Amino acid sequence: MRKSILKLSSVLGITTLMLFSCSSNSNGKLKIAATFAPIYDYVARIAGDKAEIMNVVGDNEPHEFSLNDARSMGFIEKADLLFAYGHNIDQWADGLNQSAYRNVTEGVRFKVDDGVEDPHAWLSIECAKSMARNVARAISDKDPANKEYYEKNLESLLESYDGLDAKYKETLLGKTTSPYIVTSHEAFGYLASDYGLTQVGVNDIADHEPTSARISQVVDFIEEHEVKCIFLEELDSAGNIETVKSELSKRGYEIEYDVLSAYECATESKWKNGEDFVSVMEENLKVLAKWIA
Fold first, then answer.
1. pTM for the structure as a whole
2. Secondary structure of residue 2 in the 3-state scheme
3. Is residue 275 included in any domain, yes or no?
4. How far is CA 252 from CA 246, 255, 256, in A?
5. Residue 134, domain extent
6. What is the pLDDT of residues 202-253, one digit of tens each?
7. SS3 63
């Protein structure tokens, strides 16, 4: 009898241990890692309070990010889902937790300029909506019991993104005094093409440092088209912009610069306080309207 009780206790203990180990999160929520800001925005809006979510890059620059802290590595290792972007943005995530890895860009059509793919598709609202749908599908597949909740949150996301798109069209499409935007880095090509603008970047799509010839081309372009402002990406140094301004000043042409966000970084706390994709893009619209609308 005693042996039977011990045997039963042992079986129950092993079963309990197995059940516990199958749950990546002791509170029963999904554990979801998003590599950087736009993906975090999709996941946080869709998964809501049904998941524990980490924005791995946080407030860092995603292109040059290196995963080296134990907390992030431990979270990713135990994550139910790891959402990544690819396209040379978050290649550090390749090979991590392959059973959880999901690429959010499936079905997204990327622009190619002069044979170079532009990876900044999340700045196109239509592309962002496609990626959000991919995220919602993956989360629902992982947690079908809450599929209705996730689909409702996706609808809310799509509505807010549609509202943002309508504001951009109303403000910019066919209503600009000049359709040209000069940027520190060619990160805004999708946004430009969506709303009838033409982007000229000091640094190219891959963010290579400009040659002296490129600086001269940008200076000539600004003067020829009477551009009023250079737009500095929020993570960029103003060094190259200052060089352009200096060269223009030698010609008696004065120009200002203002800041646009490519929404590549965002802390979780800032997101929870309202600094999300929609609010950042609304601020970008105000900056654009100030100079070209």
1. 0.89
2. helix
3. no
4. 10, 10, 13
5. 9-169
6. 999 988 999 999 999 999 999 999 999 999 999 888 999 999 999 999 999 9
7. helix
